[in-house]
Structure formats: structure tokens, C-alpha cells
Design a protein that fits this description.
175 residues; 0% strand; elongated
């Protein structure tokens, strides 16, 4: 039997579909926050390279070089471990090391730059994993809408990131 030559009516997804059910709404809110803060961390570390101890040119070179093994390790982790463990492990590595840098005395230049590089490694690996992880969370109907919304949240984080770089340099708001 012949089917209609008329194409089937496709359902249209709107942004509110990401918040229709409690489960999808929770996933969407967590994804938006995760993309936002990961982007702030990634671009904050990238843009603060000249402020690190030591030679600014060497720091910039190291910051760029550390991304290559981060992408390779992220790819290997995504192939071998569950997505949830890969992503949370790299986020904890990047965030924990960056928080630990505050405890390192200013005299230990090599140690502080090394810890920043490990933090950049973790944040870069997590940022690259977010694309794969985010796509697998949503049903097909709203997948493109979800990726677009979370990517927008990421871009908002990258807009705000330069302000975090200079946050500690001013002592008062009116200065």
C-alpha cells in the first residue's frame, strides 16, 4: 500500500518544553548552571594567564599546550568510564586544584603555576565533555533547543569571566 506523499506534521519544540516536566526542568537548570560556571572557570583561567607568577609568555604557552592532553584524556575517559564519573572527576580536579591554589604561599612560583595548569587541564577536559554529556541527557524533540540554551548560558559565562579576573585587584567599589 502506498503511503501519503504528504510529509508528516513534525512537532515544534519551544524553549518552555525544557521546563514542562520536573525531571527535564531539573536537568535543564543544572545544565545551565554547569555550562555557565564551567565557562567562567575556563575563560577566567585563560584570561588570567598574564597575572600568574613568572614569565607571561611562557605561562601563555603552557596554558595553550595543556589543552592538547586535556582533550585527549577527555576523549579516553569518555570512551572508558561512564559520562557522569568522567565529568564529575574532571570538574572536581579542576575546581579543587584552583581552590587549593589560595593556600600556596606567593613565594612558590613554580608550584602555583603548576597547580593552575592542573586546574586548567581539569576545566578544559570538563568543558569538552559537556558537549557529549549534554546531548545525551535530553529527548530528541528538545535536544537542539537544550544545546542552544546551554550554549547560550556558556556564552554568558564567557562574557562575565573577564570581570572575575580583575575581581581581586580593586579594594573598593568606587575606586
Amino acid at each position: 500500500q502506498m503511503q501519503d506523499s504528504k510529509p508528516q506534521q513534525q512537532q515544534k519544540a519551544i524553549l518552555l518544553d525544557l521546563f514542562r516536566t520536573r525531571n527535564i526542568a531539573t536537568i535543564t537548570i543544572m545544565s545551565l548552571l554547569l555550562w555557565f560556571f564551567t565557562s567562567v572557570g575556563y575563560f577566567g583561567l585563560s584570561l588570567s594567564t598574564p597575572n600568574w607568577h613568572g614569565n607571561a609568555y611562557i605561562n601563555c604557552f603552557l596554558s595553550a599546550v595543556i589543552e592538547v592532553p586535556a582533550y585527549v584524556i577527555a576523549w579516553l575517559l569518555l570512551r572508558s568510564l561512564p559520562r557522569r564519573y568522567s565529568l564529575s572527576g574532571t570538574l572536581f580536579l579542576g575546581g579543587g586544584v584552583v581552590l587549593f591554589i589560595q593556600l600556596v604561599p606567593a613565594d612558590f612560583n613554580v608550584l602555583s603555576v603548576g597547580l593552575v595548569m592542573i586546574g586548567k587541564f581539569g576545566i578544559t577536559a570538563a568543558f569538552s565533555m559537556l558537549y557529549v554529556y549534554n546531548v545525551e541527557l535530553y529527548p530528541t524533540l528538545v535536544r537542539n533547543m537544550a544545546v542552544g540554551a546551554t550554549s547560550t548560558a556558556s556564552r554568558l559565562g564567557s562574557i562575565i569571566a573577564p570581570y572575575f579576573v580583575y575581581l581581586g585587584e580593586t579594594s573598593c567599589i568606587s575606586c
